[in-house]
UniProtKB/TrEMBL annotation, chain A:
This is Cellobiose ABC transporter membrane protein. Belongs to the binding-protein-dependent transport system permease family. The chain crosses the membrane at residues 28-51, 96-117, 129-150, 293-312. GO terms for biological process: transmembrane transport. It comes from the Bacteria. It comes from Kitasatospora viridis. GO terms for cellular component: plasma membrane.
Automatic annotation (TrEMBL), chain B:
Residues 1-28 form the signal peptide. Keywords: Signal. This is Cellobiose-binding protein. Pfam families: SBP_bac_8. It comes from the Bacteria. PROSITE patterns: PROKAR_LIPOPROTEIN (PS51257), TAT (PS51318).
Length: 320, 439
């Protein structure tokens, strides 16, 4: 269709134009609205991720990133089998034990607390708000307070176990004692947060179920096991996933708990997590390449954990 | 960067990765910012920013006000961070980016060998040629520390950390040892192993629950830092064969196995409370440590501490002022740095906050030579002890990882003191730690 002069659009053409505009609008506008998120994500999420991946294939100093030397998978090889592998496997093991020590009691206590708060009791609103107080405390403040509690010289923890006839424990020096101390901080901070999530889910459980159970003569404990827990299964799975991710990335608590030797997770690396190892390599030893390799290994580990979780979730759904 | 440490754990790793990449992005896009600007013209109003950490004492001594009064066109803004570690992390990122630095930046002695290395030295201007600066005024080893291999001096010394030994005279008396500063200095003069021997003598008759020293890491650092050969030799890291590292390690192990050390980690809360509980009798005492002793021991222990010379003169701590080459007012910044590090100003800082001058001219001034600490051994010649130590320190070769090694060895000694590893295991772990942290 070629024309020498533009002619005013006929009513039909205008109609056509309008419907096309409408179609673009209904199809395109959602994309325009979500675009800011994806642009920001690309700039601050995707790009750093890819850039870190690129860095992990180089030997590169923090001070001269433009002088990166290509080493291929050398950083990963170092990490898994080379000189620093001792520290990597140690950090991985610590991450798993610290994660288990903090996640399991934290979620168990949270669900118990939520169950109690779900009953009618005085000052319920206040108690529910109070649950969030530890979560609102900064890691730095909480860790410093707990470092004093677990101090070998006149700390509250030693005073307490002394009441039961136990001797002085050098909390920070031992592998298990230090991990227990750090797990306590994590548990203290996150239990309330998880309890609120459980509480919200519990409110959605129909009251008739409890009434029926009560009429059948079920105790509160039985109600908890046979009504609450099954109804909460998807929520529990959600919190397990979130807490696992959190535990894998654990950084602030061990870093600050160690004081002078926090950057390497204690004098003997006894509580060095993967997050702390990454910081130590990148910012203490200024080896960006190796730090990036640790970051990517953590990322791969999380993907793996996510996959396992998805499989379990599917199993559970099928079994219902 | 401080943010990374304090955010909730779920996010911190992601943030860390983000920060790494962000630092990298900044780097990639930056190169040097071109020609060197001249001094501000007469009457032209400029603002000089001074980045420092902890207590440099310039504000306390009224030096900035005095300088601004003498130079009405200059306004000085101090940009100060409490913790040196946080300050350095931020400065590191600015250095990597080549921008965002103050006109004057302070550097702690632990960072100076990295700053003078080939990797970083071009980020700072050469201050040897700045007007009013004369090499001979400064302590030779201090001047050397800030000088690069190609003979550029990128930092002028502010304070130094000559070591003495602070001791509890009441505990010394209780253990039947002399307690007067001169007599105590004589007990171990010239040899660190005599200090350990005195420790055994102390421990034999010490009041129950008291130790001779707070930690053997202090002893280790004392021995290494008072030697001519430390961690480097011939431009290379050579700590395994260094005589001072060997003897420092073996003395620290001796002190531990003889039960002389309480095994505390320096600067930790437990270490701080131990001062108040009077559970140890001596601590390595660089000049800046006086403030800690007074603060942590508290009023209840006033008059119980005293100060003696260390077995050999060593240095722990002290800082420099540098002028980054990316600054807009380099000539003015150089003039300010030269003035701040001149003897009269350093003496005023010493008077105000107790930082021992690095400018030799200041030692003759009565503010320094006549100084006595009202809390620690009120009659001890503290000013003379520190100036004598500062002048006696031998220059030692250093390198970019010297600070890291000091840190790694302190950890190695803690492995023995706190984690009860054998000396051999602790040495191997320390060597592994060092090997894996240097690429």
């Amino acid at each position: 269709m070629t024309r020498a002069l533009p002619t005013p659009p006929t009513p039909e053409r205008r109609q056509l134009w309008r419907s096309r505009l409408y179609r673009w609008d209904s199809k395109g506008t959602p994309y325009a609205f979500v675009a800011p998120f994806f642009v920001v994500f690309a700039a601050f999420g995707l790009f750093p991720l890819l850039y870190t991946g690129w860095l992990s294939l180089h030997q590169v100093s923090l001070y001269h990133v433009n002088q990166a030397r290509w080493v291929g998978l050398g950083n990963y090889r170092d990490l898994f089998t080379g000189a620093p592998s001792r520290f990597f496997w140690n950090a991985l093991r610590n991450t798993v034990t610290l994660g288990a020590l903090s996640t399991v009691p934290q979620l168990a206590m949270a669900i118990g607390l939520a169950h109690l708060l779900n009953y009618r009791l005085r000052a319920r609103g206040f108690l529910r708000t109070a649950l969030l107080a530890p979560y609102a405390t900064s890691v730095a403040a909480a860790t410093l307070a707990f470092a004093l509690i677990f101090s070998p010289e006149g700390g509250m923890a030693n005073w307490f176990i002394h009441l039961f006839g136990f001797g002085r424990v050098d909390w920070e020096a031992g592998r298990w004692s230090s991990q227990f101390a750090i797990a306590t901080i994590v548990t203290w901070r996150w239990t309330g947060y998880n309890a609120l999530i459980y509480l919200a889910a519990m409110q959605a459980v129909p009251g008739e179920l409890y009434e029926a159970a009560a009429i059948d003569g079920a105790s509160r404990l039985r109600q908890f096991w046979h009504v609450t827990v099954p109804a909460l299964r998807p929520t529990i799975l959600f919190t397990v996933v979130i807490s696992t991710i959190g535990a894998t990335q654990l950084f602030g608590e061990p870093f600050l708990f160690g004081g002078q030797s926090g950057h390497q997770g204690g004098a003997d690396n006894q509580y060095e997590t993967l997050g702390v190892l990454m910081y130590d390599q990148g910012f203490h030893n200024s080896m960006l390449g190796r730090a990036s390799a640790v970051a990517w290994t953590m990322f791969a580990l999380l993907l793996l954990l996510g996959l396992v979780n998805a499989l379990i979730a599917r199993r559970l759904r099928r079994s219902q | 960067m401080h943010q990374t440490r304090t955010t909730r754990p779920r996010r911190s790793a992601l943030l860390g990765a983000g920060a790494l990449a962000a630092a990298a992005v900044l780097l990639a896009g930056c190169s040097s910012s071109g020609g060197s600007p001249a001094a501000a013209g007469p009457g032209q109003k400029i603002t000089l920013t001074v980045g420092d950490f902890g207590t440099f004492g310039y504000k306390e001594a009224g030096l900035f006000d005095a300088y601004m009064a003498a130079h009405p066109n200059i306004t000085i803004k101090e940009d100060t961070t409490t913790a040196e570690a946080d300050y350095w992390t931020a400065l590191q990122t600015h250095l990597a980016a080549g921008s965002g630095m103050d006109d004057v930046q302070a550097l702690e002695v632990g960072r100076i060998s990295l700053a003078t290395s080939d990797a970083l030295s071009s980020a700072f201007v050469d201050l040897a040629k700045a007007p009013g600066v004369s090499k001979g005024d400064y302590l030779p080893w201090k001047w050397q520390q800030a000088t690069t291999a190609d003979n550029r001096t990128i930092g002028l010394g502010t304070d130094v950390g000559p070591m003495a030994i602070c001791y509890r005279q009441d505990l010394f008396q209780a253990a039947g040892l002399p307690s007067d500063p001169a007599a105590v200095s004589a007990l171990w003069a010239g040899d660190w192993s005599k200090y350990v021997e005195q420790g055994k003598a102390f421990q034999a008759k010490a009041p129950k629950g008291t130790y001779f020293m707070d930690t053997a890491t202090g002893l280790f650092n004392g021995v290494v830092s008072s030697a001519a050969q430390q961690y480097y030799q011939g431009g290379k890291l050579d700590y395994k064969d260094s005589p001072s590292v060997k003897s420092a390690w073996s003395l620290a192990m001796q002190a531990d196995s003889a039960g002389l050390s309480e095994g505390l980690k320096e600067f930790d809360p437990a270490w701080q409370t131990a001062f108040a509980q009077s559970s140890f009798a001596t601590t390595i005492c660089p000049s800046w440590q006086q403030a800690n002793i007074q603060k942590f021991s508290g009023a209840a222990n006033a008059g119980k501490w005293n100060i003696a010379q260390a077995p050999a003169a060593g240095n722990w701590g002290g800082s420099f002022l540098t002028v980054p080459s990316s600054g807009k007012h380099q000539a003015d910044a150089e003039a300010l740095v030269a003035w701040l590090t001149a003897p009269e100003q350093q003496a005023k800082v010493f008077e105000a906050v107790g930082n021992i001058p690095s400018n030799q001219g200041a030692y003759a001034l009565s503010e320094v030579s006549g100084y006595k600490n009202p809390y620690i051994g009120p009659n001890a010649p503290t000013g003379q002890i520190f100036s004598a130590a500062a002048k006696a320190i031998q220059p030692a070769e250093t390198g970019p990882h010297a600070g890291d090694l000091q840190n790694d060895f302190s950890n190695g000694i803690l492995l023995v003191e706190q984690n009860h590893k054998s000396a051999g295991d602790a040495w191997n772990t320390t060597v592994q730690q060092i090997d894996s942290s240097i690429q």
